[in-house]
Each structure stands twice: as structure tokens, then as C-alpha cells.
Design goal:
Oligomer: heterodimer
Distance between the termini of chain A: 15 Å
Order of helices and strands of chain B: HHHH
Number of strands of chain A: 29
CATH topology of the largest domain in chain A: Rossmann fold
Mean pLDDT of chain B: 95
CATH architecture of the largest domain in chain A: 3-Layer(aba) Sandwich
Helix content of chain A: 25-40%
Number of strands of chain B: 0
Mean pLDDT of chain A: 97
Number of helices of chain A: 27
Number of helices of chain B: 4
CATH class of chain B: Mainly Alpha
Largest interface: A-B, 31 and 24 residues
Shape of chain B: elongated
CATH topology of chain B: Ferritin
CATH architecture of chain B: Up-down Bundle
Chain lengths: ~800, ~150
């Protein structure tokens, strides 16, 4: 047995290059139960991180009692993340919502579904009546629902109401991945496969603390690192994360300067001849302009901007330039920082100029932050159109109109769909009057929370919240709908490397809770949305029907699901799209032939200027004659919108711990996870702490121009000048009368990347001061992960004890 | 040679555009993208003006008196609200368009004067002005339906 709180990654199963990753089956059952007590195992996959780990849900006596990794699956080969091992317990929480709630003055009171839905539909019909009625609706959804739910919601918004105001919280986690893939390769879709870890000879992790965000992927990397001929490893991160400590080379860059680093690395690689001239000539566009831009970033200048040694920049270039099978992964350190899309594109550029794409080991993961983020993007429940279609291509819109049997002009396509921050701005100004929030908690997760609370509390704004629990956002709603969750409903979702999994219903939801799909379909029925022949726009009654309809929508597009069915997903491993009649087993890697999705009739975007987001037109795009070649976009480094000054001399970055997910709606209700990371903390470099007179465990105030929070100090390996707050901690589990400000997003700035529109969570200027002595009691921060204390600190290790003992069975 | 007058016209147009970008940035600070990108583009206009200055000075030595009505006033202050934002961006668009056509005219004159240095400046800057126009158009296209059809 392994305490997977004390050791989140479990025992090693080392392997060498080109070998299959050994199986290791992880399992956790409630209390003293054994497999003999389990009535049935129900197939599913993880929704508490974005890796897409396949698992079976154990059911006993009509309740979920545990989980077990699926050995047969290509993604995890039996392994599970600690959040999956323990997080399912939240399903059984006593404070689940079981009945709809409606606002009665200052209170939310229980009611029945007819009353709750009746209020939503009455308000909807009132708003829709008249020109411009569509513009009063805003939808803010999630990265945690199922594909079928997103697709149904997308059709409701685009063909039912005709509004472009729909986005997911994927805007906060994965919008830059999509934007960078589109800008480089023509459409969304990960080029690589998780199996690239098995083949690579170097791994570069760009702002990606994979050890805490996708633990199973990290286990795969660690197993390679412990086996023969291990891959070299480069980490770029301002924090001393487990990844940074494992890496052969760690560049702790100053927050907000990724672009300068990338330009400098590309310059070295080009000048030292470590690029593939033939590949560049045959398969890319823009190399001369790329050379012109990066030439301005010699190592000494990069060292000044990024505050890292110039020699380390050169060493990093050597590591990257010497690799024969380079694997790159990118996440929030790039996506939520300054010049997000431009910096993420430079990672694509690195692979393109080295010809390191489309073959085993040479891969790119532009990661997702959430389990089903990929599906929000594919189905058009965020700022994209269904099937990775191009909003500016009339033929693509006509295809959707034919598919849904509606007039072309019903579908909003005069601009890209409205991004989340703009939706909230319209709500703030009063033109959006109904905001429907599903499976996400913006009152904790969006930047500048006092502003978000003010918007949600506006009396003129009708707020619908659909969730499992009464979240901080739910408290401000006009109608709260109790939703079923993972294990209580059936549907599919897709991992970073395009692997589609089926998650089946294991148990009934509590009380009157309904699946998100049922709620959306009920709304569509009550609104009586019609197609152009007067038939029902949305005739579906269950998830499999929606999946079949989605397959038609995906036909011929990069994310082609037509070869997948529920039956095909049952029993075996997940399947990677595109999966068609011609490729019935799916497709492991994209762009194996160096032909990219940049054809003007096929691509998802006609491109944008990387420094402003200015849209290029179709004719400008055609004039470049991309014809299957990838783009090499490049721009100069620009400082962040907010940089430190005398009043706010430090830089705040926010992020995650391995033990919590998002705003802890589930993980905060699983005892083992909650105990491991029960309360907010702030990470400081010992040198900064000493200057400020702060010791381990002291209560510290952190203030930005937007607000202030309090947290206990953890002295650790974060770079000087930067402080870190985990963003998980809101207020639901504090006494309403004694809430102390602790949510990291009280401090963050309302600003976003000009291309991906992803908010900048990693670059707020703050002031830090000691508020009270800790009297020697350490901060409530885990000793595992980025918050590992400085060596020799007197801090008890984070452990889970007997309650966290799990099976970790090697074959 | 009248080139100095057009250089002066373009120089002042760039300065005025920089100033207008800053005023719009301040007036619409609640639109963070507009605020940030207007600040960024104001700096770009400053750079353009700075690059033009030595040429304006050099050619002014050979120039006759400035003609009447050379300069025009395109900006008289910012507005508020959704439609105010749209209208302010439209002012910026017209000012950037004036710069854009002036770059073309000055570029033609640079060919005539066989002035490679000036041509280099034009080639570098006119592309950045074109991006400003494109960004303003993109942002206005996004804002127009909500501001003109939906908002009360």
C-alpha cells in the first residue's frame, strides 16, 4: 500500500526508449472495503485534471465506493492521480444540491423544477422579444462537462438564441493552446501523442508544473528518467517545482518575460545551425521574418530581461538544439502570462524549424488545464465554432446552417464568439441581462473578484447557476439548478492528446439533481426552438443521440469522430481522433507528412497580428499561399501591462497544488485532499522574506491595486522578487460572518492576451507586509510540490496516513 | 522642394495620434484591452515621430513657406459608454488613415528624392500603421453589434 498523499506519484516503473510503458494499476476503495465488496465496475475517466486518465468506478449498494485505473488504456496504463483516488468522495457529500433554488429577496429558497425553469424561460422569452434580443444572453460554461453537453449548449446558443456570447472557463486555462495551434498549424488539435514520452531524448517543460497538474504524465516522464538512456530535461518556471528540481537545467525567469527567452533560444539555435533547412523550406512560411526578429535577442540581452545567467540560456539552446527527438509541453506559465500566444507559438516554431514534429518522440503538447477543455473547443461552446470551423469562412457557416437546418444568418458570424472577459464586461454595462453559468465558479476563479461579485450581484442581471454545490457564485444567483456529476451521467470527453473516453453512469444523482445535458435539453424544449421547416431544432433526448449528431458535425473536419461510437469506446482503451472509416483505430500523431491544416478553405482562422490581435482577411490569407505549410509567427518582447513599482514592488503569480482542483468544489470535500492542503498560503523567497522581516508561518498581507488578502508565509525556492498564491481558496467553507480575504484573484489584474484573450493571472504587482507573528507554527502549505520548504526547515511532512493508503500494483 | 511640408504633416499627425491614443486609453480604462493596446500603440506613434524628425529637419532647410491649410484637426476629445467607445475608435481610425496615406505619399517622395534612408523608415513604419488600422477595425467590428443593436 502507498500513501498517495505523501507520495502523489507512487512507485516507479522504469523503462527505456521505444519500450512500452509498464502497467501499474492504482486503486482506492472506501474504508475497509475490498474488491470482493464491489457490486460492479463502471467505465469512466478522470475529470479532476486534464490528463484524461481512464478508470473504473466501483459501485457497492448503489453508492460509489472507489476507483481503479484501467490497465488497458493508452493514456495511463492503470495509474491514477491522487485527486482521482480520493476526489470521488465529494459525489457523496451531504451538502450536494438536491433541489432547484430561486431567489426570494435576500434568500435562495428551494423550489421545484417547473418553477425554476419557468422563471428562466419567462425571462428568456421576454429578453428575446425584439431586435437585438440575442445580445442580452450570455453563457459561461466549463471545462468539466461532457462533449454532448457542450454540443447541445453550443446549438442552443448559436442556432436557437443566435447569440455569440458564449464562452467556457477554458478561456482561463486553455485558450492560448488553441490560439497557438491555430496560428501555427491552421487549426486546433494536438500534433503529438502521450507516447512521445516513450520515445523522446529530451523534454522541455515551458511553464508547466506537470508534476502537480497532470501527475500521471509526470509518472511517465519520471519512469523514463529512471530507466536506461533517459531523456534530458529543461524546465522554465519561476518556482522550484518538482519539475524544476528534477530537470537538468532550470531557468527561473522573471515572470512576464517568456517571449524574450524564447526569442533568445531560437536565435541561438538558428545561428548555431541546429535547424533543419530542408524542413523549413518545404513545410514552413515566415522563416526570414522569424530570423529578423529573434536576431535582436543575444544571450546577454535575454539574461538582462529574464534575470537568468546568459550561460544558462546558451546551455538551454544546446540541450534543445542537440536533441534528436524533442518533446515540448506548455502550460499556464506561458498561457496565463504576458504575450501568451506569441510565446506559445515560439515553442511551435522551435519544433518546426528543427523538423521535430509528427514522428515518435518529436512532439508538442500545448496542454489543456481542464479535463474536458478540448471538447469545449471542438464543439463550439467557447470562442470557437463547432468542428473547429472558421467564423470568417462563409462556407463553414453554411455547413453548420445545413446541418442544423437553420438560416445562415441565424448563426452569429460577424466576429469571433465573445470571450469571457468581454461577456462579463457587457454584463457590467447592462447589455447582457441573462448570464447562465454552468459548472464553474467565476466568483473565485476570474480576475479582480470584487468587480466580478459586483457584476453578479447587479439586480438587473438575471444569473442562472448550474452546479453540484452552492458555490460562491451560486450564492449570487437568481436561480440555482442542481446538477448531476461524473459517475451520475453518461457522456464522452477527450484528453490533450485527442484520446476520446466514455464515462458511464454508475449511480443515480442525489435528490432531484439532473444531468447538465437534461437541463439544456429541457430548456430547449421549453423555449420551443425550431428549425427552418418548423421542426424542433434540438430533437435529442439522451447523450448517445447527441454524440451521433456531433459525429456528423465533425465529419471531414480535423476532429473527425465519425469512426467512434459508444460501443467502440466500451471495454478497451480510449481512441484518438481523427477516427474515421479509413482510420478506424484513430490517429496517433498529426502532421506526420509535414502537411498542415493551413489550406484557406480548411483552416480555422485567417490569422491575427500577434501583438494586437488584429484580424487578417481571407484575401490577405490566400495571398500568402500557405497551402499546407505551417506558419512561423514572431514578435518582439513587450513588457507586461503591469510591472512592479515602488508601491507594489513584487510580482504575484498564481497556480495550483497537486491536492486541489480549481476552486475546491470537489477536492475540498474529499478528506484526504483537503487535509493535505486545507488553507491558503503565500510562497516567498527567503531573501525577500528576510528583507521584509517575515519568517515561516507568519501571517502576511498581500495587496495589489485591486484588493488585499491574508495568508501564512511559506519560505521556499521561488525566485526572488516573485510571490505565489494558490488560486483554489474561496469562501464556501468559511463562516459567512468571519470570512477573511484569501482568494488569490482578489489581487489579479483584469487584462488578457490580445490573441487568445486568456487573462494574465501570472503578472500582478503586489506589496507584501507582515501582519502577525506565526509563533513558530509553519504555514498550512504542503511540503510536497512547489511549496516544499527550504532545506532544513522545521516543517512536518505532508502525509495522508492510513486513510490515504492506496493500492499501487505493478505487474 | 515641398517634401518637408509632408514630413511635417506626417510628423504632426503621428504626434496627434499618439496623444489621441493616450486620451482614449484613459477615457476607456474599463475596457482593459483598449486601454492597454492604445497605450502600446501610442508608444509606437512616438517612435514613428521620432524617426521622422531628423528628415523633417534636414528637408526643412530646402523648403519654401508652408502652404495654407496643411494640417487638419481630426480629434476633439473622448466620449463615454459603448457607442462613445465605438465613436472614439472611429476617430483613431481616421487619424491612423491619415498617417497611412501620408506614409504612402512620403514614400513616393523618398523614391523621387533617391533617399534610401527615408525609404527605410517609411517601409518599416507604414506596416505598423497598417496594423493599427487593422486592430481598430477588428475591435470596432466586435463592438458594433452590441453597442448599436443591443444596448439600450
Amino acid at each position: 500500500m502507498v500513501d498517495r498523499i505523501a507520495d502523489p506519484w507512487g512507485p516507479r516503473t522504469p523503462y527505456g526508449p521505444g519500450e512500452p510503458w509498464p502497467v501499474r494499476v492504482d486503486e482506492f476503495l472506501d474504508g475497509d472495503l475490498t474488491e470482493a465488496d464491489v457490486d460492479r465496475w463502471v467505465q469512466s475517466a478522470s475529470v479532476l485534471h486534464s490528463n484524461g486518465d481512464a478508470m473504473d468506478i466501483a459501485v457497492s449498494g448503489g453508492r460509489i465506493v472507489g476507483v481503479r485505473g484501467r490497465a488497458v488504456d493508452r493514456v495511463n496504463r492503470g495509474r491514477l492521480d491522487p485527486k482521482d483516488l480520493y476526489g470521488w468522495q465529494a459525489n457523496n457529500s451531504r451538502d450536494r444540491l438536491t433541489r432547484p433554488l430561486v431567489r426570494d429577496g435576500d434568500r435562495l429558497v428551494e423550489t421545484d423544477w417547473d418553477t425554476a425553469m419557468g422563471r428562466i424561460v419567462a425571462r428568456s422569452k421576454e429578453l428575446l422579444d425584439g431586435p437585438g434580443g440575442w445580445g442580452h444572453f450570455g453563457f459561461y460554461t466549463s471545462g468539466q462537462l461532457f462533449l454532448e453537453e457542450y454540443y447541445a449548449l453550443g446549438v442552443i446558443g448559436k442556432a436557437g438564441l443566435g447569440t455569440p456570447h458564449m464562452d467556457g472557463n477554458t478561456r482561463l486555462c486553455t485558450a492560448t493552446a488553441a490560439a497557438a495551434l491555430k496560428a501555427s498549424f491552421g487549426t486546433d488539435g494536438q500534433p503529438g501523442s502521450y507516447t512521445d514520452v516513450d520515445h523522446c531524448d529530451a523534454i522541455a517543460l515551458w511553464g508547466h508544473n506537470v508534476a502537480e497538474t497532470q501527475t500521471v504524465l509526470w509518472m511517465r516522464m519520471l519512469d523514463r528518467r529512471r530507466g536506461p538512456n533517459p531523456p534530458a530535461m529543461l524546465a522554465v518556471d519561476p518556482r522550484a517545482t518538482p519539475v524544476a528540481r528534477e530537470a537538468d537545467l532550470h531557468l527561473a525567469v522573471r515572470s512576464g518575460t517568456n517571449m524574450a527567452l524564447m526569442n533568445g533560444l531560437l536565435r541561438e539555435i538558428i545561428r548555431r545551425g541546429w535547424y533543419d533547412r530542408d524542413y523549413v523550406d518545404a513545410h514552413t512560411l515566415g522563416f526570414d521574418e522569424l530570423c529578423r526578429i529573434v536576431d535582436g535577442y543575444p544571450p546577454r540581452r535575454v539574461a538582462e530581461i529574464c534575470d537568468v545567467p546568459a550561460a544558462d540560456v546558451e546551455r538551454a539552446a544546446e540541450l534543445l538544439g542537440g536533441a534528436q527527438r524533442l518533446l515540448s509541453t506548455v502550460l499556464q506559465g506561458f498561457y496565463q502570462s504576458n504575450q501568451a500566444t506569441a510565446a506559445a507559438c515560439q515553442v511551435n516554431n522551435l519544433h518546426l524549424i528543427r523538423g521535430m514534429i509528427g514522428r515518435p518522440g518529436a512532439g508538442i503538447y500545448q496542454m489543456n488545464g481542464q479535463p474536458t477543455a478540448q471538447n469545449t473547443r471542438e464543439t463550439g461552446a467557447d470562442g470557437d465554432l463547432p468542428g473547429l470551423r472558421n467564423w470568417d469562412n462563409d462556407q463553414h457557416i453554411a455547413e453548420l446552417a445545413r446541418l442544423w437546418n437553420v438560416e445562415v444568418d441565424t448563426i452569429p458570424h460577424w466576429a469571433p464568439p465573445t470571450h469571457a472577459m468581454q461577456i462579463f464586461r457587457y454584463a457590467e454595462q447592462g447589455s447582457i441581462k441573462l448570464l447562465w453559468i454552468s459548472a464553474t465558479n467565476p466568483a473565485v476563479s476570474l480576475p479582480d473578484l470584487s468587480r466580478i461579485r459586483r457584476i453578479l450581484a447587479r439586480p438587473e442581471l438575471f444569473v442562472v447557476v448550474q452546479d453540484l454545490f452552492l458555490t460562491e457564485t451560486g450564492e449570487l444567483a437568481d436561480v440555482v439548478l442542481p446538477a448531476a456529476t461524473w459517475g451520475e451521467k453518461t457522456g464522452t470527453f477527450t484528453s490533450v492528446d485527442r484520446t476520446v473516453h466514455l464515462s458511464e453512469k454508475a449511480v443515480d444523482p442525489p435528490g432531484e439533481a439532473r444531468s447538465d445535458l437534461d437541463i439544456f435539453l429541457d430548456y430547449a424544449r421549453r423555449m420551443d426552438f425550431r428549425d427552418r421547416d418548423g421542426g424542433p431544432l434540438i430533437p435529442w433526448t439522451g447523450p448517445e443521440e447527441v454524440f451521433e449528431a456531433w459525429k456528423e458535425c465533425s465529419r471531414g473536419r480535423p476532429c473527425d469522430y465519425t469512426g467512434i461510437s459508444y460501443d467502440k469506446l466500451r471495454g478497451g482503451s480510449g481512441v484518438q481522433w481523427p477516427c474515421t472509416e479509413e482510420h478506424p483505430d484513430g490517429t496517433e500523431r498529426l502532421y506526420t507528412d509535414g502537411v498542415f491544416n493551413t489550406g484557406p478553405d480548411y483552416c480555422e482562422t485567417f490569422g491575427q497580428d500577434l501583438s494586437t490581435g488584429a484580424e487578417f482577411t481571407q484575401s490577405e490569407y490566400r495571398a500568402r499561399e500557405p497551402n499546407g505549410r505551417a506558419f512561423l509567427p514572431a514578435v518582439d518582447y513587450q513588457p507586461s501591462p503591469e510591472v512592479p513599482d515602488d508601491e507594489h514592488p513584487l510580482l504575484l503569480t498564481t497556480g495550483r497544488t497537486v491536492y486541489q482542483f480549481h476552486t475546491r468544489t470537489k477536492t475540498g470535500r474529499a478528506a484526504q485532499l483537503d487535509a493535505a492542503a486545507p488553507q491558503v498560503w503565500v510562497e516567498l523567497n527567503p531573501a525577500d522574506a528576510e528583507r521584509l522581516g517575515i519568517a515561516e508561518g507568519d501571517l502576511v498581507g498581500i495587496a495589489s491595486p485591486r484588493g488585499a488578502v491574508q495568508a501564512r508565509a511559506r519560505l521556499c525556492g521561488i525566485r526572488p522578487g516573485v510571490v505565489f498564491l494558490p488560486f483554489h481558496y474561496g469562501y464556501f467553507d468559511q463562516d459567512p460572518n468571519e470570512r477573511t480575504p484569501r482568494a488569490a484573484n482578489e489581487l489579479t489584474v483584469t487584462a488578457w492576451d490580445p490573441i487568445s484573450k486568456q487573462p494574465l493571472f501570472k503578472v500582478a504587482a503586489v506589496a507584501v507586509a507582515k501582519l502577525a507573528d506565526g509563533d513558530g507554527v509553519p504555514a498550512p502549505a504542503p511540503t510536497v510540490g512547489g511549496s516544499e520548504p527550504v532545506p532544513g526547515a522545521d516543517v512536518p511532512a505532508t502525509v495522508g496516513g492510513p486513510a490515504a493508503e492506496a493500492v499501487s500494483g505493478k505487474e | 522642394m515641398h517634401l518637408a511640408h509632408y514630413l511635417g504633416l506626417l510628423h504632426r499627425a503621428q504626434c496627434n495620434l499618439a496623444d489621441a491614443f493616450r486620451q482614449v486609453a484613459d477615457a476607456h480604462a474599463e475596457e482593459p484591452d483598449v486601454h492597454h493596446l492604445c497605450q502600446q500603440q501610442a508608444k509606437r506613434c512616438d517612435e514613428h515621430a521620432e524617426r521622422l524628425r531628423p528628415f523633417a529637419e534636414r528637408y526643412s532647410e530646402e523648403a519654401p513657406a508652408e502652404p495654407d491649410r496643411l494640417h487638419s484637426e481630426l480629434f476633439t476629445g473622448t466620449r463615454t459608454g459603448g457607442i462613445g467607445l465605438l465613436r472614439d475608435l472611429q476617430d483613431l481610425y481616421l487619424m491612423a488613415a491619415q498617417c497611412d496615406i501620408s506614409w504612402t505619399v512620403v514614400g513616393q517622395a523618398a523614391y523621387g528624392a533617391r533617399d534610401e534612408d527615408l525609404l527605410g523608415v517609411v517601409k518599416r513604419c507604414e506596416g505598423e500603421t497598417a496594423i493599427q488600422l487593422k486592430w481598430l477595425r477588428t475591435r470596432m467590428k466586435q463592438a458594433a453589434p452590441q453597442a448599436l443593436v443591443v444596448a439600450e
